[in-house]
Amino acid sequence: MDAKPVMLIVDDVEINRVVLSQFFQDEYAIVEAADGQEAMDALAAQTVSIVLLDLVMPVMDGFAVLAAMKRNDQYAQIPVIVMTAHNDGSSEERALELGAADFIVKPYNPTVVRCRVKNVMARQENEWRKVAQVAQDRQLAEMHRHIEKDALTGIDNREAFYRRTAALLQKNQDAAYSILYFDISCFKVINDIFHLDTGNLVLKTAAIYFQVLAGEAGTCGRIESDHFALCLPSAKVDMDNIMAGLDSTVKSLGLSHSIVFYAGVYPVDNAFLPVDQMCDRANMALTSIKGSYLQRHAYYDKSMRDRMFEEQMIVRDMEFALMARQFCVYLQPVHSLKENRIVSAEALVRWQHPTQGMIPPDRFISIFERNGFISRLDRFVWTEVCRIIKEQKARDGKALPISVNVSRLHFYDAGLLDFQLRLVKTYDLEPWMFRLEVDESAYTDNPYQMAQCVRALREHGFCVLLDDFGSGYSSLNMLKDLPVDGIKIDRSFVREVGQSERAGTIMEAIVTMAKKLAMGIVVEGVETKEQVDYLAGIGCENMQGYYYSRPVPEAEFAALLRNEADA
Question: Does one domain contain both 352 and 473?
Answer without folding.
Answer: yes
